[in-house]
Design goal:
The protein is an alpha+beta fold and about 450 residues long. Helices cover about 35% and strands about 20% of the residues. It folds into three domains: about 170 residues, no CATH class; about 120 residues, no CATH class; about 35 residues, no CATH class. Helix 6 packs across helix 9. The longest helix has about 35 residues.
Length: about 450
């Protein structure tokens, strides 16, 4: 199958190349803000006429202004302002789509210097040894050394700046064999604050609490930055130190999430998670910082595309599914349960289990399409992975002969019995005693 993947590498530019990268970043930011201001003016002035435009029309107008108003743009790649206007057009489409679907998508805002600095390039992009060649920028050294990077057609390259580091993300269109599902069985994943992820098989992943451990240093650097004079070199040093700390927090969080999601997608055929309302959870002022530090949405986003890569299936349980209040053994649902109750104690069967583990076991049962077995019992009893459920009833067929040995029927079929009567094929094990005369069936169950 044909997929699109992105490969991210850290650049190692010299001082001259850093200047050129900063110029391209400023050009993309200027084109974005220029296009946004033009759209706002067009909307306010033309009340009865055309009040919108497109990225192509704005790019044509910008090219005409290059000769007289913006001659410095000729020194840079044409892709930087062009792709910035396309990003602006995509932002407006998302805004209008949000108004129709009643989703909270904010109006596009002006970009600021030093905040999400990036630009995108298209054209001739290739790797030469340990360097990457970009349009109008030439060859830039990479910090990583690999023999082969990837096999596919390069679509674009996005250069971003985080603190004082530069990264390039190469988008590649490549062929990939249809993956086979992993050998591991289904697993339920319960996300939390105390424990980052709890699996239904008992495996737990601790929460690194990256931001909480560096919160004291973060406050110190923020206070130091606020005391510096604007425009001074000391303020620039303080800003760079604060940006480096934020980058380290981001890298540690991303590394933890990538390791967990990659393991789950490669080793389990089916992964069941909850549809969490993160915006509602963030309204709790006592837990909002810790919840934001975990990255619930990023965990789900990584699982979505990694399950497609490795052939596993991602199942999202309903938002109001009582995974924490339901007993994984008998199915009893508690009416009240607070966050301080870390051990689940069932009032019906007396089951005592960790709260997160009980929720993960219930998530596995939520992925089953059938809710009852042949005897009318809850199918979750069969889906319990830790063996805490009781033995379920077996399907009872009529005309069962007491004391009959199943091995007596092996001559008439090992596992599947083909009955030619009425062209009916029954694929169950031979557990019913039949009377055969001259090879023909005389009594059918």
């Amino acid at each position: 199958m044909l997929i699109t993947r992105a490969f991210k590498y850290e650049l190692d530019p010299n001082n001259q190349q850093r200047t050129r990268l900063s110029q391209h970043t400023g050009c993309a930011r200027f084109a974005y803000n220029w296009g946004l201001q033009q759209r706002i003016t067009l909307y306010n002035q033309n009340q009865d006429k055309k009040r919108s435009t497109s990225a192509i029309a704005q790019h044509r107008e910008l090219n005409q202004l290059k000769r007289t108003v913006f001659p410095w743009m000729y020194e840079l790649s044409k892709c930087a302002p062009q792709e910035a206007l396309r990003d602006l057009d995509r932002a407006f489409k998302n805004f209008y789509r949000g108004l129709k679907s009643r989703k909270r998508v904010g109006f596009p805002r002006f970009k600021k210097r030093g905040v999400h600095d990036s630009f995108r390039l298209t054209g001739t992009i290739r790797f030469i040894g340990r360097m990457i060649q970009l349009p109008r920028l030439g060859r830039i050294r990479l910090k990583e050394k690999r023999e082969s990077y990837f096999k596919g057609r390069v679509l674009s390259a996005t250069v971003t700046r985080r603190a004082d580091r530069w990264y390039v993300s190469v988008t590649v269109e490549m062929e990939m064999d249809c993956p086979e599902p992993p050998g591991g069985g289904p697993v339920g994943v319960d996300l939390g604050v105390k424990t980052l992820a709890t699996l239904s098989d008992g495996t737990t992943y601790s929460n690194p609490r990256v931001l909480e451990k560096r919160l004291r240093k973060l406050r110190k650097l923020s206070k130091s930055l606020s005391r510096k004079k604007r425009g001074s070199k000391n303020r620039e040093r303080a800003r760079l130190g604060l940006a480096r700390l934020h980058l380290r927090v981001f890298n540690i969080r991303q590394d933890t999430l990538h390791k967990i999601t990659t393991y789950l997608a490669k080793n389990h055929s089916q992964i069941v998670i909850e549809d969490l309302c993160v915006s509602g959870l963030l309204k709790n002022r006592r837990l909002s910082r810790v919840i934001a530090d975990v990255g619930f949405y990023e965990f789900r986003r990584q699982l979505e595309y990694k399950c497609e890569w490795y052939g596993s299936e991602l199942v999202v349980a309903p938002r109001f599914y009582p995974s924490s209040k339901r007993c994984s053994a008998c199915g009893n649902i508690k009416r009240e349960m607070t966050l301080s109750d870390r051990v689940y104690v069932c009032d019906e069967c007396g089951l005592e289990m960790d709260r997160d583990l009980n929720a993960a076991c219930n998530l596995v049962a939520a992925s089953w399409t059938e809710t009852e077995n042949a005897c009318g019992e809850d199918v979750r009893l069969v889906a319990d992975p830790v063996g805490s459920a009781e033995q379920t009833s077996m399907n009872q067929e009529p005309n069962i002969s007491q004391g009959h040995d199943v091995q007596d029927c092996t001559s008439f079929g090992q596992r599947f019995v083909d009955w030619d009567c009425h062209n009916l094929i029954i694929g169950f094990s031979c557990v019913v005693h039949h009377h055969y005369t001259n090879g023909s069936c005389m009594n059918h169950a």
